[in-house]
Write a structure and sequence with these properties.
The protein is mainly α. The chain has helices spanning 12-35, 42-49, 53-59, 63-68, 78-85, 91-103, 110-122, 124-151, 161-184, 195-209; strands at residues 107-109, 190-192. Helix 1 runs parallel beside helix 7 (110-122). It is globular.
């Protein structure tokens, strides 16, 4: 049985980075709600967040990613495989760990999540941008999981590594979508997306399937 990992406490530097990231995202989404997605500029985000343009691009590669969330960039080389190696008999758990390893932390800001939900509900363009980011992230995760299964066929549960990887990523996306409702109503500020969330939703999947 795979051991559930407890979230590691953050140091001061990580907390400062997270505060800056929250400020950028909050500013970006607020401006999008107030003025429309198409009218938001990097300059306006920087002014509201009180940061420089160079600081913005240290955190986000584009304006769209600041508004709806960045597509994840997976660790390079064997680092991504080492995450999946940490729970070789549970690919969905491995993908969940890989997802948050790629983000660099396991926090969800409830205020930003609520603002984004409102934005997506009000502006179709934001919904499209969100879908593009989700699909891009899913493709990266599925490709890495497929490569890992191909390297470790003894760990595969299905004949097709592509199919197994895609199913695992789809399950994790479902977990995150399901839990987002709770994360959005968890008060204000950051909440931790921990592995117990994954296990809980996976149990509910099994109950639903009978």
């Amino acid at each position: 049985m795979n051991r559930i990992e407890e979230p590691r406490p953050e140091g001061l530097r990580a907390r400062k980075r997270r505060a800056t990231e929250n400020a950028i995202e909050t500013s970006a989404v607020t401006l999008a709600i107030e003025s429309g997605v198409e009218n938001v500029t990097v300059e306006a985000i920087c002014e509201m967040a009180d940061i420089s343009r160079s600081t913005f691009f240290n955190y986000f590669s584009s304006r769209d990613h600041a508004i709806v969330g960045r597509a994840i960039s997976l660790p390079e080389g064997g680092e991504a495989f080492s995450v999946l190696d940490s729970c070789p008999d549970d690919l969905p758990l491995g993908v969940f760990r890989l997802y948050f390893a790629a983000i660099g932390h396991s926090h969800v800001n409830s205020d930003v999540a609520r603002l984004r939900a409102r934005l997506v509900a009000e502006q179709p363009e934001a919904a499209h941008m969100t879908l593009v980011s989700l699909l891009e992230s899913s493709q990266h995760l599925a490709a890495t999981a497929t490569a890992w299964l191909t390297r470790h066929p003894e760990r595969a549960k299905l004949e097709s590594p592509v199919r197994e990887a895609t199913l695992a990523v789809t399950l994790v996306n479902g977990v995150i979508a399901t839990q987002m409702g709770e994360w959005m109503t968890a008060g204000s500020g950051d909440v931790t997306a921990d592995e117990e969330d994954l296990l809980r939703v996976m149990r509910e999947y099994r109950e639903l399937l009978g």
